[in-house]
Amino acid sequence: MFLKVALLILRKDVAIEAKSREILYTTLFFAVSCILVFSFAFVKEGRAVEDAAAGILWIAIAFAGTLALGRTFERERFGETLKALLLAPAARPAIYLGKLLGVVLLLCLAELLLVPLVALLFSAALFVRPALLAGLLLAGTVGFCAVGTLFAAMLVRARTRDVLLPILLYPITVPVMIAGVRGTAALLASPPDEQVATMWLGLLVSFDVVFVTLALWTFEPLMTE
Predict the structure, then answer these.
(1) CA distance 2 to 144
(2) Are the C-beta atoms of 112 and 106 separated by less than 8 Å?
(3) Is the predicted pLDDT of residue 207 greater than 70, yes or no?
């Protein structure tokens, strides 16, 4: 029943987004604009600044993720959908899991565009170890969204939610971003350092387990209050 509720919420979000594409287009436009601005700053005479690609990729993912998190719960606030979900005879952590899966799916779609764009503009060999890169991106995205989904839901009724969300989110997810950047940079080294990248991937998975477990545990009391 727990997983069924989470999948139903994911299905609802996907169906709404498939019709409007509002959040997807906004997120993609913002992330691509961010990368283009950095490319003008760090690419000179056809050469990119060394080791810049990894950091720029993760900065774009973080900014796009923050925007997607805020917009996702904004939709729930206008229709009082979140209140209805909380009143439904379903486990509240399942509601959190469904929303988390929706945001992770949205960011993964954005990353399908961002990774080739960064590889092209910064001449970065991001596809040398595609499996490791995909693991790093997925683990980092889950860790970032696990914290962001909890805070976005908690702040959905706050007037200053757009300001408070990044203030609360970024300090806690700094370890996730550092691990993602260092792991990606290890893959971009010449030759690629798979051992170091695997170490950072393991660290990201550990962060995911801790963040998701704590979020599932605290979601119900936070939303009740």
Answers:
(1) 23
(2) no
(3) yes
Taking the model in full, what pTM does it have? 0.90
Cα 57-167-150 angle, rounded to 5 deg: 85
| C-alpha to C-alpha distance for 217 and 74, rounded to whole angstroms | 23
Each residue's pLDDT tens digit, 152-166: 888 877 777 778 888
Residue the block writes with tokens 């997807």: 24
Altogether, the residues listed in the chain come to a count of 225
* Contact in structure between 73 and 82 (CB atoms under 8 Å): yes
Residues 6+ apart with CB under 8 A from 3: 94
